[in-house]
């Protein structure tokens, strides 16, 4: 699904921009940490955030990742959120923080609301 010419954008710890659709049909875009396992993209959030509510109501999402050295080089991935896994210990947040080279703790009190959004790509475009 992801072309070999752009897999590096998923292998590197680059910020992705996750687009979701709100109840009223308007788009919502947020920068997110992500990890690609060759089949799914995974993100983390908490259940009190708009992106969580949006994907629960409408699982169709898109992600854009651009190359910081060549800003017009990008991959856009459209897909469907196949599931939302609970992560009350915040373990996945730690995985992503380590991937992005940050010694960063989740905000106090949000671990019990933490979830992992699991997206299955269905289409890509790239430049």
TrEMBL record:
Residue span(s) of domain Pyridoxamine 5'-phosphate oxidase N-terminal: 3-126
GO molecular function terms attached to this record: coenzyme F420 binding; oxidoreductase activity, acting on the CH-CH group of donors
Superkingdom as given in the UniProt entry: Bacteria
One Pfam family recorded for the sequence: PNPOx_N
Keywords on record: Oxidoreductase
Any Gene Ontology CC annotation: cytosol
InterPro entries cross-referenced by the UniProt entry: F420-binding_dom_put, F420H2_bilvrd_red/Heme_oxyg, Pyridox_Oxase_N, Split_barrel_FMN-bd
Protein name (record): TIGR03618 family F420-dependent PPOX class oxidoreductase
Record organism: Nonomuraea phyllanthi
Organism taxonomic ancestry: Bacteria, Bacillati, Actinomycetota, Actinomycetes, Streptosporangiales
